[in-house]
Amino acid sequence: MLKRTVRTIFAAALAALLILNAGVFAVGDGTGPAAYTNSMTLAKGFTYQNDISYTPAGRRVETFMLENAAGSPVYPIVLACDTIYGGMTITQIINYARAQGYHVVGSVNADFGYWDTRIPCGMVVEDGIYKSSPEGNNAIAFSEGGAFTSFMPEVNITLQNETAGESVSLTHYNKTRSDGGGLYLYSEDFSTVSTRTTTDGWFVRFKVLEGEMSVSGRMTLEVAELIDGQYNSLVIGKDNLILTAADASELQSEFEKFSVGDRVTLTTACTDEKLASAQWISGCGNILVSEGGVFHSEWWDSTITDVNPRTAIGIKADGTLVYYVMDGRTTASRGSTLSQLAQDMISMGCIYAVNMDGGGSTE
Predict the structure, then answer these.
(1) Are residues 195 and 140 located together in one domain of the fold?
(2) What are the φ and ψ backbone dihedral angles of 141, each rounded to 5 degrees?
């Protein structure tokens, strides 16, 4: 997995980029009490803190924290680069956010992603626009009413052909098409180059007549083009959506439900209704803490439970957000296990917390 570019801007932005736009805590029970602390207030209700602690075995651990009080003028947003496909360095994505008018005061890694494509593993919603599907991953969401976590949400997409009386259902949106993965839908938010598909398949091009993609909404489309058996990737284009499947998926019958000129209604419905109100959503790793206690550690990803660099986001009862980063894999800082990370978040007062992609690229 990749230290991907879903990051948080503190506001004034989180596989997506979590960036913050413009509370002191002690490192918790997991990594041991702080032996050194340096903190400063960066904006009203927005505090930075750097701690050095030592484990019971004498291993040094260095952590960095941003604490964002509810009601602060600083707030988080989620950015997954300029498109879902491809990646940016942390500096590039901060500059990208600034070019959009955000005053960036910090950023942290958010969702995990894939090395070859830089596509985030989970869900991406940017300023209310649904940009990439969750694919069975957890999510953390941000809205004017506060932040919350979501356990394995799904967004169901239905294409109802009003002309022919046929319908097609799918969930994959702006993810890499696989031969056995079924149906995929693409918008230009995925890539301004093409669908990036590499094997034989069919394509249905829709022109968007009304609406925009959200996790719970409706759009009106018209079938503009049908392409069967094209090997090369297809340019998506502005105000277009592309429905496609690889020939190996054996879904030719779905392609045959459409003809050029058909009017189609696209609807989206999220299994977690709360996500419909969120302006910004990022996929995330394991939910570490829920309702003040460790959340089903038996469900955690066993490949990353051992000592590693860490990034986590916590939510306190009063709505305060904690962005917690831990260096690791060096003599200067050991890192922590997921269990230690969960205990740290609880000892800071977080009643909900999620594991994000590691700490190497956070600024």
Answers:
(1) no
(2) -125, 150
What is the per-residue DSSP string for 148-174?
EEESS--EEEEEEETTTTEEEEE-EES
Containing 186, the helix (H) or strand (E) segment is strand 184-186
What residues contact residue 280 under an 8 Å CB cut-off, 6+ apart?
14, 76, 77, 78, 125, 126, 127, 141, 142, 143
* 24 pLDDT more than 50: no
Least confident of 72-76, 172-176, 256-260: 72-76
| DSSP helix/strand/coil, 99 | helix
Where among 270, 290, 312 does a domain terminate?
A: 270
Confidence class for position 143, pLDDT limits 50, 70, 90: very high
Same domain membership, residue 10 and residue 140: yes
Tell me the whole-structure pTM to 2 decimals.
0.90
> What mean pLDDT is predicted for residues 247-256?
96
Q: What is the dihedral of CA 125, 130, 132, 138, to 10 degrees?
A: 50
Identify the pLDDT of residue 163. Answer: 98
C-alpha to C-alpha distances, 270 to 46, 145, 167, 277, nearest whole angstrom: 32, 19, 18, 11
**Cα–Cα distance measured from residue 144 to residue 196, given in angstroms and rounded to the nearest whole number:** 35
When divided into structural domains, the chain yields a total of: 2
Phi, psi of 297 (to 5 degrees): -60, -20
Q: Are residues 281 and 243 in the same domain?
A: no
Distance, in Å, from the CA atom of 350 to the CA atom of 227, rounded to the nearest integer, reads 52
d(CA 330, CA 59): 10
13 with 27, same domain? Answer: yes
